[in-house]
Amino acid sequence: MGRLSIKTVCKGTALLIFVILQGLNAETATTSTSTLSTESQTTAPATTSSPSTESQTSAPSTPATTSSSSTESQTSAPTTPATISSLSTESQTSAPSTPATTSSSSTESQTSAPTTPATISSLSTESQTSAPSTAPATTSSPSTKSETSAPSTAPATTSSPSTKSETSAPSTTNAIENLTVTEISTSFVLLKWDKQLEMGSSFKVNWTADETHGNVTVTVPNVTVTGLIAGVNYTFCITVVVADTSTEPVCISAWTKPDVIMNLTADDITTSSVLLNWIKPNGQSSHYRVEYEDKNVIAENTSIKINDLIPGAQYTFRVFAVAADNETKGRANQISLYTKPDVIKNFTVSKITTSSVFLTWAEPFGNRSFFKLNWTDENLDLNRKAVETNNTSYHITGLNAGVNYTFCITAAAADQSTEGETLCISNYTRPNVASNLTVSEITPSSVFLTWEEPLGNRSFFKIQWTSDKTNGSSTTNNTSYNITGLTAGVNYTFIITAVAADRSTEGGSVVTSKYTKPDVIMNLTADDITTSSVLLNWIKPNGQSSHYRVEYEDTIVITEKTSIKINDLIPGAQYTFRVFAVAADNETKGRANQISLYTKPDVIMNFTVSTITTSSVFLTWAEPFGNRSFFKLNWTDENLDLNRKAVETNNTSYHITGLNAGVNYTFCITAVAADQSTEGETLCISNYTRPNVASNLTVSEITPSSVFLTWEEPVGHRSFFKIQWADDKTDATTNTSHQITGLTAGVNYTFCITAVAADQSTEGETVCSSQFTKPNMIINLTVSEITPSSVFLKWDEPFGNRSFFKIQWTDDKTNGSSTTNNTSYNITGLNAGVNYTFIITAVAADQSTEGESLCLSKFTKPNMIINLTVSEITPSSVFLTWKEPFGNRSFFKIQWTDDKTNGSSTTNNTSYNITGLTAGVNYTFIITAVAADRSTEGESAVTSKYTKPNMIINLKVSEITTSSVFLTWEEPVGNRSFFKIQWTGYKINGSSTTNNTSYNITGLTAGVNYTFIITAVAADRLTEGETVCISQFTKPDVITNLRVNNTTTSSVFLTWNEPLGNRSFFKIQWTSHKTNANSTTNNTSYNITGLTAGVNYTFIITAVAADRSTEGESVVTSKYT
Q1: Cβ atoms of residues 709 and 723 within 8 Å
Q2: If you compute the radius of gyration of the chain from its CA atoms, what whole number of angstroms results?
Q3: Which burial class, exposed, middle or buried, applies to 209 when counting CB atoms under 10 A from its CB (0-12, 13-18, 19+)?
Q4: Fewer CB within 10 Å: N-end or C-end of the chain?
Q5: C-beta neighbour count of 365 within 10 angstroms
């Protein structure tokens, strides 16, 4: 503030003296102050009644009472008795006063400095009053805070709706009242007050602020002061001027509103902060208030950084300039903006293919509207493919294979323009797979790979090869590659993969497998050469091989070993064998090693000596299988060298003559191959010349299995005699007789005797004789298909021959016989249940020679019983009866069965009582007559029958109505199929069936006695168990149309309609609040007497059945006598 002039000081001093003198002469008055100020201060002794939150007393004063609802109130100037009315929000009083009453709704009131002259117009929003007072004051305030800081000596009354007011000037009884500031702006205020001017008077308005001041004279009680400076605290004083004199001024202080700030901008916008900048407004201001959301912050400077904002959120910031009173604020300037969305995290590329990638990312903290996604390769503009998405993933398709793409993502706010930090990631798409991979130029140690260039981009090809033991790899920029240094005969897998320029992103691999060629085998030899086989041996080749292939002629054989025996060769033939090592694919083979050779000619077969005489033999043999060049033949006896008589022939026969009779000769022959050296196996045969024939052969002592032969010694030499019979039977003896055994009975044998040389095979001429043996006994005689009048005999054919069979049979009374050529016979006309003996004898072809007889005894079957009946059926037993069968029998076998149990017994009688059966079960009864051997049984008689079901128990009747009852019972012991239900009553009969153990019977007549009958029925739907019965009345029906007639003081006459159905009588009940009575009647009316006059009676009519207990539904009515 500037310095005060001497003139100003003198004027102020004179004014103060004048005010004090006026106060001493004034009447004692009471000043009431009522204010709504938040803060009030009183500096003189006072009695205070206030709901204020804070109260301070800092200056002496005369007795005073303060009442205020002001938010803040200060008193700082002395006043004479005065009345001040203000709507100010803030009020201050700072001068001493006499007793006064102040009433104010002001929040804050202050008194400050003079102002410069100004233009004056009408009503003001802010007012200031600053006047001395000499009277005691009384203050009553509900203020939150109150202060009183100056003495007061004059009575005064202040009431102000002003936002701010100060009282600082003395007044007389004709001073102005209710000085208020009604309108405040940045450059003017509107003042209003109450005072009627007298003729020739005027109002002088003065204002001061810091170093400026002004004044104006008006004749109306309001003025608009313009040309003020924004944000300045002005003191406005009003004086009534009459002629050359003036009243004490009434003053009020008010702050002009600060001007609006200029050029509000937002800079350095981040995800959680913004820097606000503006230009200081015209005029003055103390500080700035920034409001956003439900927050406000104070700034002393023209910029402020707002922190802790939510990313991607919209904010509106309102900035006010605030005056030095910390309350008066100017018009707001505002700006709206979005914070930047937060940075995206976990941005990943997955599911990479040759033409697409799948992008995923985490939702950023805070808000965002959408994501802007773009991508580029080295040849495309970044924004040309920008897309927007609301999701946290995106599938990008249509990319080129093997290309390095940069994918950038940015979160955008809802204003479509504010973007968060861009996050980028680069990745190559996978190169395409190479095609048409082929393997060529395969050797034992190398292969040549070729393939076609894949679509799209690639940097190079990665080549990998692997076997079960080794791995190798290389790279190339070409579409072919020669792999060397491989192992022979090994299966290699070759993998070609296109690799992108990042040297890590690989396309799909193309794979092929191929074996290298095995190496050549070594040291091939042929051993163990036979007529049809040769054993080949060799040494394993270098490297690996799975097996070996041997090729000869048009044949291929496989072996896994380094040797193989080749079979099924042609004897005496020339073969060339080629041996290859073969890889495990059974296809790739190495270079062959080969060997040529002849097989041995085959052994000669069917080498025989024929046309043997005493001096010659004729040799023949079969051509050996396979090839040969010629045959080499020689022979000898025990005295000659084998080779001295060797001859060669191309034929398969040779006649040797000039031999000695009865001499044993050895003849040998060998086949020779075309190489003149390879010989087959030599075959030799020995033979004697033939001896002479025997004579006078005879057969004697003939039995079924033997004969005795005799003959005379032949002329000449022999070794022994060979005996033959039955074509294939032989024996030998050195004697001229022989017993032959083991012959077949009944067979005609030819017996031949031949002299045999010492070689045991060369025979002389044979002599023969024929004779029959006796037939043999039959075996396995059996009797089958036994009936009461026949049997069927079967037996096995006896060993040897026979002509026919003689059959005989006998019992103790009869005999019979017959013949047959068969091994079976059906004997008929027998008696039932009789024991017969059957005799079978085989007869030779001479019709007279018989074999030993075979006998067998057997009973015929008894006849089947007749007229089997079942009677006296109970739940646990039946009584069986039948008639005696025709013929014989020993006893009867009785059997019975159901689906779960079996039983049996025997009896000699024609009846039997079976007990212990289960109720309601279907039993099958079987009766069989048995012969005396206790095993032969006649045909069975069979019948089936159900036992009776058991009787039900605990039959009960419940849920009885006028037309139905509900029956329940317990399941009977044993089986049953269903229950038959019958009921009978008044004129009706009814029946039904059920599988349950309960049944609801409907359609009955009311009040009728019904008999209900329950019977369990077996599954044949015919056999019934014992019946259970129960009787029950249905309920009578309800009466209708109950009427009360002829009502007197002591009686009523009741009438009603007969109910449907039956009933026995009616039960009548009547009751009041004190009495009960009842009666019965057979009629449909009843006169009740002995009632009490004027009482409300309830009358109840119930129909009762004939059992006198079953009652129908009651009908009730009430009536006063």
Answers
A1: yes
A2: 74
A3: buried
A4: N
A5: 15
- What tokens were used for 117? 């002259």
Q: How far is the CA of 528 from the CAs of 524, 525, 533, 572, in angstroms?
A: 14, 10, 8, 14
Stretch 212-225: mean pLDDT:
92
CB–CB of 753/710 below 8 Å? no
Using alpha carbons, select from 432, 427, 403 the residue that is nearest to residue 497.
Answer: 432
Q: Can you say whether the dihedral through the CA atoms of 1110, 1112, 1113, 1114 is positive or negative?
A: negative
pLDDT for the residue numbered 718: 80
Tell me which residue of 22, 8, 362, 21 sits closest to 171, measured CA to CA: 22
User: Tokens for 189?
Assistant: 């205020």
CA–CA distances in Å: residue 583 to residues 323, 487, 710: 103, 11, 79
pLDDT digits (tens, 9 = 90+) for 93-143: 333 333 333 233 332 333 333 333 333 333 333 333 333 333 332 223 333
Half-sphere exposure of 829 (CA within 13 A, CB side): 6
| Nearest alpha carbon to residue 403 among 370, 361, 357 | 357
Cα–Cα distance for residue pair 175/129, rounded to 1 Å: 12
Q: How far is CA 300 from CA 287, 317, 321, 481, in A?
A: 5, 16, 10, 79
Q: How many CB atoms lie within 10 A of CB 49?
A: 14
Three-state DSSP at 82 gives coil
Distance CA 308, CA 294 (A): 14
Of 1000, 1030, 1022, nearest to 949 by C-alpha is 1022
pLDDT 10s digits, 680-733: 889 998 888 787 788 899 988 878 888 899 998 876 668 889 999 877 888 899
What's the pLDDT tens digit per position in 296-314? Answer: 999 999 999 999 999 999 9
Which conformational region is residue 142 in: left (phi greater than 0), alpha (psi within -120 to 50 degrees), or beta? alpha
101-104 and 31-34 as β-strands: parallel, antiparallel, unpaired?
parallel
| Measured CA distances, 454 to 55, 437, 498, 950, 1017 (Å) | 92, 11, 8, 93, 89
The pLDDT of residue 846 is 79
Over range 841-862, report the average pLDDT: 87
Structure tokens at 1007: 């009040």
Q: Which of 56, 22, 62 is nearest to 38 (CA)?
A: 56
Is pLDDT above 60 for 542?
A: yes
CA pair distance 543, 485, nearest whole angstrom: 12
Looking at residue 693, its pLDDT comes to 82
Give the Cα separation of 983 and 995 in Å (integer).
17
Neighbouring-strand partners of residue 386: none
User: Is residue 95 a contact partner of residue 153, using CB atoms and an 8 Å limit?
Assistant: no
Three-state DSSP class for 570? coil
Which pairing describes strands 357-362 and 345-350: parallel, antiparallel, or unpaired? antiparallel
Model pTM score: 0.40
Q: What percent of the chain has pLDDT over 90?
A: 58
Nearest to 235 by CA among 133, 116, 383, 402: 116
Token pair 């004479």 in the structure block, residue? 80
The one-letter amino acid code at 552 reads Y
Q: HEC profile for 15-52?
A: HHHHHHHHHHHCCCCCEEEECEEEEEEECCCCEEECCC
For the stretch 1050-1096, pLDDT in tens is 999 999 999 998 999 999 999 998 889 999 999 999 999 999 999 99
Beta strand ranges found along 584-637 (DSSP E): 593-598, 605-610, 617-622, 630-636
Given a contact cutoff of 8 angstroms between Cβ atoms, the answer to whether 601 and 678 are in contact is: yes
Residue partners of 359: CB distance under 8 A and separation at least 6: 347, 348, 349, 350, 373, 393, 394, 395, 396, 407, 409
- Cα 458 → chain centroid: 44
Q: Which residue, 993, 1059, 821, 1019, is CA-closest to 920?
A: 1019
The number of angstroms, rounded, from the C-alpha of 142 to the middle of its chain's C-alpha atoms is 74
